[in-house]
Write a structure and sequence with these properties.
- One of its GO terms (molecular function) is exodeoxyribonuclease VII activity.
- The structure is a single chain.
- The protein has 246 residues and is mostly helical.
- Among the domains are: 54 residues, no CATH class; 73 residues; 41 residues, no CATH class.
- Helix content is 61%, strand content 7%.
- It contains 8 helices and 5 strands.
- The strands form 2 sheets. The chain has a 3-stranded antiparallel sheet, with no helix packed on it. The protein has a two-stranded parallel sheet with strand order 1-2.
- 4% of the residues are buried.
Length: 246
């Protein structure tokens, strides 16, 4: 850019060297040479010609209002993207939380399964008893008067009935003991049971990672302490390293 001048003053912008340099430049070139009526070879080689140096400045430097609008638009776009990402990950966490089953739910499902199996075994046993009873009645009616020892056959059926009943009772006792053992194990492993015994869980904030080593936190770090009833939000005042802490 150059203000107005004589032809001699503008001669430099008509030189071959300047024209070739402008043409070879990889940077956008805007010219504003002389007055609006002045034309030079540099104007024709440049990417954009402005009538005056002031006009060239206006073309190359955007208005403050336009730049602010661009920044505001980018800020809104960024907020929108962050909101969508937060919503997505919140939904993902809620979905994973819904799929997790507590130890009590697992125990109840296992108990219902065992009750259903015991009921099916009892029904199968009853059907077998009725079948054997009907078979015995048919045998008595068919062989009455020709078979001398009907009582022996009846005793066999009764013995089988008692054997099946004892087997079912033994199975029910075994399954019930297994349910009670599993329930006790799950109850002991339940984090709520550990908290009810006076223990607590310390987690870092805001990522909520369980603190297992005092060396993983620093003084003044915010932490969360989960109790059997409620939570405590506090900051680290001092850390003591080592395992001899009880």
């Amino acid at each position: 850019a150059r203000g107005g001048g004589s032809l001699e003053d503008l001669a430099a912008f008509n030189s071959e060297a300047v024209a070739r340099a402008i043409f070879a430049s990889k940077i956008l070139i805007v010219t504003g040479i002389g007055h609006e009526t002045d034309f030079t070879i540099a104007d024709f080689v440049a990417d954009v010609r402005a009538p005056t140096p002031s006009a060239a400045a206006e073309l190359t430097v955007p208005e403050k209002k336009y730049l602010k609008q661009q920044i505001d638009d980018m800020h809104l776009d960024l907020l929108s993207i962050m909101t969508r990402m937060m919503t997505f990950y919140h939904q993902k966490v809620d979905d994973l939380h819904g799929r997790l089953k507590s130890p009590v739910q697992i125990m109840n499902m296992f108990k219902q399964t065992m009750v259903s199996l015991c009921l099916r075994m009892q029904q199968a046993l009853q059907r077998r008893i009725f079948h054997d009873k009907d078979k015995l009645v048919w045998m008595v009616q068919a062989l009455k008067g020709t078979v001398p020892d009907i009582r022996f056959s009846r005793k066999q059926v009764l013995d089988r009935h008692h054997q099946l009943f004892r087997a079912m009772e033994h199975c029910v006792i075994q399954k019930n003991n297994r349910i009670q053992h599993t329930a006790a194990t799950l109850k002991a492993l339940n984090p709520a049971s550990v908290l009810n015994r006076g223990y607590s869980i310390a987690r870092t904030l805001p990522d909520k990672k369980v603190i297992l080593d005092a060396g993983k936190v620093n003084v003044q770090d915010p932490i969360e302490i989960i109790l059997a009833q409620g939570r405590v939000l506090t900051r680290v005042e001092k850390t003591i390293h080592g395992k001899d802490h009880i």
